[in-house]
Amino acid sequence: MRFKLVTLDIFGTVLKLQSDVGHQYSKAGAKFGVHVNQDLLLRNFKEVWLDMNQKYPIYGVQSFGWRKWWEKLIYKTFSKSSSVEVNRESVENISQHLFEMYKKAETWKLCDGALDFMNTMHDKHIPLVVISNFDSRLEDLLLTMNVRHYFKLVIASYNVGVQKPDLSIFQLVEDKLKQFPDLADIRKHEIIHIGDSPELDYISATRAGWNSFLIQSDSDAVIKKYPLIAKNHIFKDLKEIKIKLLCS
Question: What is the chain written as a DSSP string?
Answer without folding.
Answer: ---SEEEE--BTTTEEESS-HHHHHHHHHHHTT----HHHHHHHHHHHHHHHHHHSHHHHTTTT-HHHHHHHHHHHHHHHH-SSPPPHHHHHHHHHHHHHHTTSGGGEEEPTTHHHHHHHHHHTT--EEEEE---TTHHHHHHHTT-GGGEEEEEEHHHHT--TT-THHHHHHHHHHTTSTTTTT--GGGEEEEES-IIIIIIHHHHTT-EEEEE-S-HHHHHHH-TTS-GGGEESSHHHHHHHHHH-
